[in-house]
Amino acid sequence: MEFIGDRVLGLLMAEWLAERFPDEQEGALGPRLALLVSRPVLAEIAEEVGLGRALSIAAGEARAGVRRRATVLADGLEAALGAVYLDGGLAPARRFVRGAWASRIEAQGRPPKDPKTELQEHTLAKGWGLPRYAVVSADGPPHAPSFRISVSVPGLPPDGPSGDGVAGSKRLAERAAAADLLARLATSPNAR
To answer: What is the model's pLDDT at position 185?
Structure first.
C-alpha cells in the first residue's frame, strides 16, 4: 500500500502544483514537490489527521514510541493514501490530498531552496567562502544509522556560529546542519 500511495501522492501533487503555479518551470516545481512529499511533511500531516492513533502497533513497540516516529507516520500516511486510491480511485485520493495539504500549498511563495544551496549562496554573497561539512559521529546499526554533521564557514568571525545536524544519512544530516546554521546566522550579531 505504501508503494502505491507514494506514487499516487506524487501524481496528485504534481498535478496540483502545475495548476497552482502554471508559469513555473520544472526546475522550480521540483523543489516544491520534494518538500511537500518529504518525510517531515508527511509525518506532520499524519499527526494532524490522527493517523498515529489508528495504527496497529505491537504493545512493546507502542511503549517504545514507535507510533510517533516520523518514518512510521509518513509510511502509514502513504499506505492509507494507497488504500483510498485502490478503494475509490483518484477522486477521493485527490480530495484527501487537497484538504490535508491545502495550507502548505497556499503558504508557498517562492520555490523552496535546499538549505545547503541557500547556505552556500548566502556565504558566497557575504564573501565568507564555501561552507565546510564534517562528520562528527556515525552511530547506530547498519539498518538505522545516525550521522551527526557539523558545518562551519571559514570567513565567519572566530566567535561566529556553526551548524549541527543529525539524520539517518549524511546527505540529510548535512541539510539539517545547513538549516541550523542559516537559523543561527539570522540571529547572530557577529555574522551579519
So the answer is: 82
Nine-digit cell at 70? 516520523
Do residues 128 and 156 lie in contact, with contact meaning Cβ atoms separated by under 8 Å?
yes
pLDDT tens track for 64-78? 666 677 788 889 999
pLDDT value at 17 more than 90: yes
Verify that 85 and 136 share a domain, yes or no. no
The count of structural domains within the chain is 2
What CATH number is associated with residue 147?
3.30.160.20
DSSP characters for 123-166? HHHTT----EEEEEEEES-TTS-EEEEEEE-TTS-TT---EEEE
For residue 99, the domain's CATH number is 1.10.1520.10
Give the active site residues.
6, 78
- Residue for cell digits 543529525? 166
